[in-house]
Design goal:
single chain, mainly alpha, 11 helices, globular, transcription, transcription regulation, MftR_C, HTH_TetR
């Protein structure tokens, strides 16, 4: 505990700190090479040489080449499910996800798609990464299905959470693609955030008739949540 009684985060050991440093070093060199040469034309051996580590060291930290380019995969896959699981009393999954997405737009969060022109172009120019990204969207929808089923006490193979996840995941997929399109069109992150702040609510509004009340948790002391 610190002087205010708050828990003090554990200090990383030297070995763990070195591992994180090495992982970040490899990731940084990989990203630079992918942007300069293209993902599909860059080899693991070239990344290892640039980072001054053995090729096996690279694959120990990043088992697949795609992991080097998309190193926030697990955060991306888990994000929607985590938002739904943590939603407050009186809040529906639609409302929670809407608020979370608009917050990520305001923060220009890279995980939401604000990755910059060079990185976005790297993905768009690589069939491998484009396919991988589609797979991540699919995995995110599957995780969302499980979270919806769990928090509404519904079997995960029931049609309701599966359909709701498809609709909610679909809106996020469209908005992610929109950010990519605007990035590739030369718009800056602040400009894109301004556009999405207008467009995203319209997209979520389309789901309100079907999902506005779905999964709403009972409010505390009878206080109703909003129906957006």
């Amino acid at each position: 505990m610190d002087s205010n009684g708050a828990p003090v985060p554990p200090v990383l050991g030297l070995r763990e700190a070195k591992k994180r440093e090495t992982r970040q070093l490899i990731s940084d060199h990989a990203t630079r090479l992918f942007i300069e040469r293209g993902f599909d034309r860059t080899t693991i051996a070239e990344i290892a040489d640039a980072a001054r580590v053995a090729k096996k060291t690279v694959t120990n930290y990043f088992p697949r080449k795609e992991d080097l380019a998309l190193d926030h995969q697990e955060e991306f896959v888990a994000a929607l499910a985590a938002t739904v699981t943590a939603r407050g009393a009186g809040e529906s999954p639609l409302t929670a996800l809407r608020h979370a997405f608009l917050a990520s737009v305001a923060a220009q969060d890279p995980v939401a798609g604000f990755a910059g022109a060079a990185f976005t172009r790297m993905i768009a120019d690589s069939p491998t990464l484009t396919s991988c990204l589609r797979g991540l969207h699919d995995r995110r929808e599957e995780a969302l299905t499980a979270a919806l089923a769990d928090t509404t006490d519904t079997p995960p193979d029931d049609i309701t959470p599966r359909t709701a996840a498809a609709l909610l995941g679909g809106v996020h997929r469209v908005l992610f693609t929109r950010i990519q399109e605007l990035t590739l069109a030369g718009r800056t992150n602040p400009e894109i955030a301004e556009v999405l702040a207008r467009e995203a609510p319209r997209a979520f509004d389309l789901l309100t008739p079907a999902l506005g009340e779905y999964g709403r948790r009972a409010p505390v002391s009878g206080v109703a949540g909003d129906g957006s």
